[in-house]
Amino acid sequence: MKRAPPSEKLLYAADVAAALKDLGAAGALPKWGAALTNPPLTRRSVQLGELRQVGIKSPESVARPTVRNDLAFLVTVVGGSSVLAVLAGALLPGDLSGFGAYLAGGISIATLAIGSTAPGLLSFIIDKFSRVFPDYRERLRRHEAAHFLCGYLLGMPVTGYSLDIGAAHTDFAETELKARLIEGFLDEEKTAKYAVVAMAGVAGEGRWSEEVVGQNADLQDLQRILNRCRTAGDRKLSDGDQQNFSRWAVWTAARLLRDNPAEYEALQGAMESGASIADCIRAIEGAKSVATN
In whole angstroms, what is the distance from residue 22 CA to residue 268 CA? Predict the structure, then answer.
């Protein structure tokens, strides 16, 4: 599947899912899909206080897009270019002082121009800049491992992952999700599973830190899923329903991480070392976990 061109990946995804399902049924992978039945995945209203009970340190920051990295980058660029301009004007001789100050001041203008014409390039630069934060690597690892583990416990096969700067992701062989989104609808049961996996990274960060930095892309994925959901009466989710759905998804993902601490830590270690998908699964299945609060 990894070597197949994008147009053929869906053909192999079904085989990956079927193989894991057979291994689970044979008892070789007892944790595969265990969260679908123990306890059953049932959506309900969740209050902010319940998010704190499952370890989310700042429930108010959940589902609120963050601009920490963007702001820090812009402040650094503007502040740094301003200092350079002042130093150039004061230290360089003759006409060079004016030219140097002008050139240094143009850095901020160039940054704004890149953001306006090539936002993807600016996002890449900001991702690289984010490495200066001492918590960046750990946030990244906890975030992607949470997606991986929750997806595994909910029976969604992982086919690839990356912790590379600017390219962090977790890929799922979930052909049904792609097909349903193309058709334009998802039932509530499928939406619940996909929503939990989408918000798992938020839960992973939120249980570790009061600030959830890497949730912007996850919120976009979640919104795309919720927009396709149809209730039993073929009704779209209202704004209030979507908010409740989002909160429940974070709560459920956080509960899975809380109840499987050894699996979560073992998986993080495997992913940090660049382990294969098979070795990551061995890390999950081999962990001896005792649920903690």
Answer: 26
